[in-house]
Amino acid sequence: MVNHMAEHTVTFDTAPQPIHVPTGTLLVEAARLAGVDIHQPCGGQGRCGRCAVVVREGTVRRRSTLRLSGEDVANGYALACQSVVEGNAFITVPPQEAIERRLTTDLTAAAVAVPAGYNPTQAQTVQRVRLSLPPPSMDDQRDDWSRLQTTLRQQAGIELIRASLAQFQQIGRALREGNWRVTAVLDADAWDCPGCPARLIDLQAGHCPEDTPLWGVAVDIGTTTVTLWLVDLLTGQARAQVAEYNRQITRGEDVISRIIYAGKNNGAVELRDLVLETINGLLETACKRVQAQPADVVKATISGNSTMIHLLLKVPAESIRLSPFVTAVNDIPTLTAREVGLNIHPEATIDCLPGVASYVGADITAGVLASGLEDSDGITLFIDVGTNGEIVLGSRDWLVTCACSAGPAFEGSGVVNGMRATKGAIEEVWVNGATFEPTYRVVGGGKPRGLCGSGLIALLAEMSLTGVVDKGGNINTVLPTPRVRLGEHGPEYVVAWADETAHGHDITITRVDVDNLVRAKAAIYAGFTVLAERVGLPLETVERVLVGGSFGKYINVEKAVEIGLLPDKPWDCFHFLGNTSVRGAYLALIDREARARVKAIAARMTYIELSADNTFYEAFTSALFLPHTDLSRFPSVQAVP
Amino acid sequence: MSAEIPKDSWSGTVRTVTLGATPAEGGTRSHVVTVGGQKTLPFMHFEQVAPNRPVVAVEIKDRCPEDWSPLLLEVWGDAAISPAAWAKQAEAAGAHVLVLALSLTGDDGKPTTPQAAVAATKAVLEASGLPLLVFGPGQAEADNELLVAVAEATKGERIALGICEDKNYRTIVAAALANGHCVTARSPMDVNLAKQLNILIHDMGLPLDRILMDPTTGALGYGIEYGYSVMERLRLAALQGDAMTQLPMIVTPGFEAWKTKESKVGRDVPEAWGDWRERAITWETLTAVTLIESGADIVVLRHPESVRRVRQAIDDLMTVPETV
Prior knowledge:
- The complex is a heterodimer.
- By secondary structure, chain A is an alpha/beta fold.
- Chain A has 18 helices and 27 strands.
- In chain B, helix 2 (83-93) runs parallel beside helix 3 (114-127), helix 3 packs across helix 4 (140-153) and helix 4 (140-153) packs parallel to helix 5.
């Protein structure tokens, strides 16, 4: 008989001290209270099995043991997200995969050129003005606020301003400390309130030197990576670029898992805090690099998919996940840092760029802006490859968009030996067609630990070319090589033997992995083909294919075509743009015209819901083949001997 | 006043597949059966008379089946315990070709051995001169083991080995390649999946004129509309010139119809359902004829009366009106 009122002592091997929790507490919750981090890549749904812990002593009740074998359970393994405390217990937590910083996006990022002809004084909405006020006297008893307003009108031509309560509490001190000489920072032209009074962001005593930078940031909140550019608003120059994994990853690897996690006890607060920690951490790093303080940052333009924006603002995201898939808000009015919780100037303007739909967010409208798609003469296809594949097709005259769920396979998740593109990831593979022996290249050199997206694409293409897999993705188990064998998850191919790897285990790709990859590529291919069909355009009429997403920097066109992820077109049609979302945010940050264009792009894009009829499914099953059931779509692949 | 009937002209033609080989061709069959070759939709005689008629196959087993309806066991009687006798009786009932469906286990309850499968196949080949199809028990490992042995022992007979599926086709196709046989390729009621399996099998080097595709179907009232539609779309794709769908189609209405409650259950059913035997035969016949109308080239049946009725229906459908 379980005593439901009882408290139990749970000890985690990695926690400084035991914790007391009532019967029925989930192990992940107990771990959180004990200060132990247990990753939940599937958002705590019990699907991924990666939160497994070992119960050394005591009892827990396993609500689900999916992904655990009978032997695992006998050895004490339990899924932390699915097991509840029913008595005192001693738990061992296996080492958690460290979230490493991506190597390439950070210091080696290409310098960002300020757009040609850029004129900051006209384009920037934030202004800094130095004012000298006439001091009050018995003859001039105007209040401080009226005095400030009059001076602004006379010395800066600004008619009306507004300020927050916190600023009224400080105005008098700043004016007097500076002996009636002050520096004001104002946001003169909020896009959501044309003609409104300028908003006072900051009032500092004294006149600051002319050449002191005025800082703003452009932020892209990716499901996987958060990128931040620190920009001097006076010149438009990006002075620091930093990127780090979104700390929310440990609470779900895809947007659906995170929405589910956000719906749990305290989950929404936890997720918001995790992304705020990530951004605030990046701010510290970027500011340190240019000897600035985060509090000096007076404007932030934020891009990201609709779910990421909702979670940042702690706006309930549940409706994004459920039919008919609507967001709470696509276009959020400007906010202040105080409201959002960013560690920059509390009055700083926070401008979240507008999205189009639940699965076509600000990252795509920003991407369209940055890619120049909205201004192109010829028909252009823009593919943002990620956990969700977002696709935009169009030209100067029209834009249609759709989203398809590709799953996280290309990001190294949902694949047995998958990993993100960090040190130790196999990023390129070649397979010998006679011996079936592979050679590979590893990110950062050294021994491999797993396969990242580009490595998986290359591997699949090479396996297909050499007959290790057939066009249906079946691994050919009768090949004369020990690399093809029957493993725990069915047939598999060994890419690296244990003695070549960093962790001493074989790196393999299994039949199930191949299926996941084929499904991911089929979803993306079906997405753009259906989109093209809906507007009645054959893919042949597409002049340029722009590939975005941090993923877009790594993939090899030839191999992506080989597996049927990208359309079979001449290589010079393809342009890899890298992270277009942060670039779009940057442009909107420095240029009011660009910001207006993002809004216009969001309004112009026609969203097509793929799940509304059968055509997507038909195109999807047709694409579930290497490269495609309709071989005539891939003439260059057929030509390969 | 005369009205002109508009005629469609298609760019594609369904390939022909010939089952069986006569002594002159290296086999022992009394004659061969050829299916396919259509240039238009089924029975559009005014556009083009099909060169080959739909074919009735009768399914027999290597041992008396435990899960078949008593109506079937009753009608086949003692023949059902001997593959040779069953083959003879099926031929007498009007089968154009025979399907020998191997059992997973023998009478002793142990897995069917390759020797037993070969013996049953040879007995059938000796008892009847009809072309033969041999289906494995439907479990990948057993299918591969038994069909390889059967293929080798019947080299040159040009039998059709089944059933290839996307997760298990290599061994069967290799056995067919090495011994001059054909294969049947089953996919789960989807145009793309049917086509994909044909490509995979063809990629191994088996010529397309040795592949029959089985798009899977459902019985009347159990999804036949879906099966019908898939077959119709496959045939339309073939006529439109899609090479990988230009294969004759085989379906198993006998198996599907005899699974239904209407055929299986004779007691405690509404009176309005009528006579059990008549109902079951009608169910099998209607399922088969419907599928023939959607383009089936071979229908695999179980009851001799259904065979008689379906053959009659084929005769009617193939009668070319004089006005054409």
